[in-house]
Amino acid sequence: MITHLGDVLTGTLVNTGAIVAGGIIGLIFRKGISDELKKTVLQGIGLVVTYLGMSMAFETENVLILIFSVVIGGILGELGNVEQRLNSIGESIKKRIGNDEDQFIEGFIFATLVYCVGALAIVGSLESGLNQNHEILFAKSVLDGTTAIAFTSSLGIGVLFSSVPVLFYQGVIAVFSGRISHYLEDGIVAELSSVGGILILAIGLNIIEVTKINVANLLPGILIAAVLANLFI
Fold this sequence. Notes:
Number of helices: 11
Strand content: under 5%
Largest sheet: none
Helix content: over 70%
Distance between the termini: 36 Å
C-alpha cells in the first residue's frame, strides 16, 4: 500500500519540490535587486499575469457558467470574509518566519491559482493516479520551477508557500483519481480554468495598480464552476 501510494504521488512530489527549489532561487535573486528594478520587473510580471488570465478566461464554453460562478462565488466570499481570513493567516505566517512583505497573500494566491487551476494540474494528476504515468506532471514541474524563480523574485516568499496547496490539491486528485475522473472531464476543466483565469486577471490588475480587487473573496467561484459545469455540461 505504501509503495503504491508512493507510485501515485511521485509526479506531485516532484512538482512540489520544483516549486520550492524555484522559489528559493527566486528569493536569492530578489536580495540582489534594487527597489527600482523590483518595481519594473513587478510591473512586467503584472502585465504577463494579466495576459495569462485573459487567455485562460477565454477557455469557457458557456459564458453563463462563468458569470454565475464569479457572481455567486463573490457573494459567498464576501459573506464568509475569505479575504480577511486569508490575510489573518498570512500575517500569522509572516510573523512566524520574520517576513514583512506586503504582497505575501497576493503572491500566494496568484501562484496557487496558476499552478493548480489548469489542464496540466488536473489531467497530469489523473494520469498519475490512474496509470502511474507522471510525464505530464514532470513537464509541469519544469514549467512551474522555472516560473517560480520569476514569480518569487517579484512577488516574494508567498509564491514559495503555494507548494503546500499544490501538494494537497494534486495529491488528492491522484489518490482518488478513480472516483473523481468522471467529474473532471475536458469541458469541466475548461470552465474551472476560465474562472481561474478571471481571478488571475484580477491579480494582474492589482499588481499593476489599475484597481484593487478583493481576489480572495472570489475564490469560491471555482467551486461553484465545478458544480455548475457538472450540472450543465
